[in-house]
User: What shape does this take?
Amino acid sequence: MLVPFYQEIHDIQNDTTLGHEALIRLWHNNSYYSAATVLKHAARHGGLPALDNQIHRLAINQFEGDGLLFLNCTPQTLISRELSFPVDIDLSGLVMEITERAPLRLDSHSMADYLRPYRSAGLRVALDDFGTGWSSFHRIEALEPDFVKLDKSLLSGMEMHVHTRKVLAGMINFACTTGITLIAEGVETPEQVTILRNLGYQYIQGFYFDVPKPTRSGSVVIS
Assistant: This one.
């Protein structure tokens, strides 16, 4: 069965909580594993939109934390126009986090058009994994996200390399110009927190502040 875990997104300037990201885990043989295999299987057999929607409902129902709830959503689900939410849900408390870890040529403008009525109802949008190659400036231009989550690879070596810190500082300037809120992912050390805080970053996510963990137990039955 699939179980939602939640990880805090922390405000390092004010020591408060922005929200939590829901991360799905597979419970099997008394242990938790990555659910990547299940998601890939669903994608191969055309079941990814239905699975995304099931996971979203489960994560919403079990969420007990503070702040916004970030829900992962694949571009395939948006392109299929099969995204759905519980009827009584307040969309202003949700952030749809668009994930893409493969070089898929999907129409960002089409996704933006599909999301427009949801955004008008309060839903916010985040672009995940920025800096991996597939989440590019083109996607930012097309989707106009509220949040951009910087991939942890962008943080690698920033304690030692001035150039890495300059790149991160440049992203802050870009965010100020566009009005986008940045979230640095994969933060694991106090040195990284200090550098990011001094550069002007407000929100971070990573093991330094919070390890993903479940709330109440629950499952999605995969047929």
About this structure: The chain has a mean pLDDT of 88. The first helix runs from residue 36 to 44. The CA atoms of residues 185 and 205 lie 5 Å apart. The helical segments are 36-44, 48-62, 75-79, 108-120, 137-143, 162-178, 190-199.
